[in-house]
Automatic annotation (TrEMBL):
Domain (YbaK/aminoacyl-tRNA synthetase-associated) ranges: 23-143
Organism: Paraburkholderia haematera
Domain of life: Bacteria
InterPro entries named among the record's database cross-references: YbaK/aa-tRNA-synt-asso_dom_sf, YbaK/aa-tRNA-synth-assoc-dom
Protein name (database record): YbaK/aminoacyl-tRNA synthetase-associated domain-containing protein
Length: 161
């Protein structure tokens, strides 16, 4: 599939400086970090949630897990994981499970975990399972300027940084 058209337009409109990093096909964010030989703390993953008001995206490091109680408290919403079938409909220009973090471009409220802002650089899915976008943190934060920055995640036990 290659880079999603929505992501490509976001990068172009922001004048983002980035590189594309190709890697062997992977099925999870932890597997992607290993396949691409990058630190898991620098790989942003996107997790989709829903409630009666619609969909919400949470963007966090691949080595972290969402603390639902924190997300609920900070958003005032009782969010649950979105169904896989819905993701295919919402992200038509992406492979299932390879969502870029620019979910505001897909019309979704997006929350960015503050821990990503502390990294020297960031990698994230380009829309398929074989390419990542790599950019400096300042570029990433500029790209994600419409996302709300909060703390809602914690490091998973036993994950390499």
């Amino acid at each position: 599939m290659s880079m999603s058209a929505t992501l490509q337009e976001c990068l172009r409109s922001k004048g983002s400086q980035y590189e594309i990093v190709h890697h062997p096909h992977s099925h999870s964010s932890i597997e992607t970090a290993a396949a691409a030989h990058i630190p898991g703390d620098r790989l942003a993953k996107t997790v989709l949630f829903e409630d009666e008001h619609g969909y919400v995206a949470a963007v966090l490091p691949s080595t972290y897990a969402v603390r639902l109680s924190e997300l609920w408290a900070k958003t005032g919403r009782h969010l649950l994981l979105a169904k896989e079938v819905d993701l295919r409909e919402l992200f038509k220009d992406c492979d299932a499970g390879a969502l870029p973090p620019v979910c505001t471009a897909y019309g979704m409220r997006t929350y960015l975990d503050e821990s990503l802002a502390l990294q020297p650089d960031v990698y994230f899915e380009a829309g398929d399972h074989e390419a990542l976008i790599h950019m400096g943190t300042d570029q990433f934060l500029d790209l994600m300027d419409r996302a709300e920055r909060i703390r809602f995640a914690r490091r998973m036990a036993g994950t390499p940084s």
